[in-house]
Amino acid sequence: MSFEIYLAPFDQHPQLQQRVRSVLTSLPEHVQQDFVTDERFGVALDNYEPGKGWTLFMPTPGPPGHGSRRVVLKPRLNDLPEDFSLYVIAHEFAHAFLRNGGWGEITDPEDAADALAATWGYPRPATSIRSLLQRWRRGQ
C-alpha cells in the first residue's frame, strides 16, 4: 500500500518521516485500507508559530461520527526517543481510526486510543512526556 501522500509533509524531518512510515506500514491491513479510502483522513506537520497561529487544512466535519480524521504531528517527534515518538504517532492514528471515540467497553477517547495503539504494538512508555520534554529541552 502506498502512503507517500501521508509522508510528504515530513520531507524536512527524515527521521520523523521514517517513524510515520514505520507505524503506518505496521498497522493491520483493514486499518490501512480504512485510511487510504477515506478522503477525510490525512497527516500533517504542526506548523504553529507563536503570535501567528497555524496554517493547516482541516477537512470539514461530516455528520456525527464522521468528523475530520486529520492527524497533526509535532516536529519535535523527530528528536524525542524513538519508542515514545512511535507511541505518540500510533496513538494519534488510533484516534483517527476510532474517529475520536471509544473502543469496545472503553468509552474515554484517550484511553481507547492508548489501548488500541498497544494492541498494534505501541504501548504507552513508562516515561512521562513531561520528563521527556524536560530532558529534550536540556539537550540530554
Explain how this protein is built:
- By secondary structure, the chain is mainly alpha-helical.
- It has one domain.
- Helices cover 44% and strands 7% of the residues.
- The chain is built from 6 helices and 2 strands, in the order H-H-H-E-E-H-H-H.
- The protein has a two-stranded parallel sheet.
- The protein is globular and about 45 Å long.
Average pLDDT, rounded to a whole number, is 86
The strands making up the biggest β-sheet line up spatially as: 1-2
Instruction: Give the overall silhouette.
Output: globular
Q: What is the CA-CA span between the terminal residues?
A: 37 Å
> How much helix, percentage-wise, in residues?
40-55%
Biggest sheet: strands, sense, closure?
2 strands, parallel
Low-confidence stretches: none
Class based on secondary structure composition and strand pairing: mainly alpha
Percentage of β-strand residues:
5-15%
Number of domains: 1
What is the count of helical runs? 6
Strand tally is 2
Order of helices and strands: HHHEEHHH
Radius of gyration: 15 Å
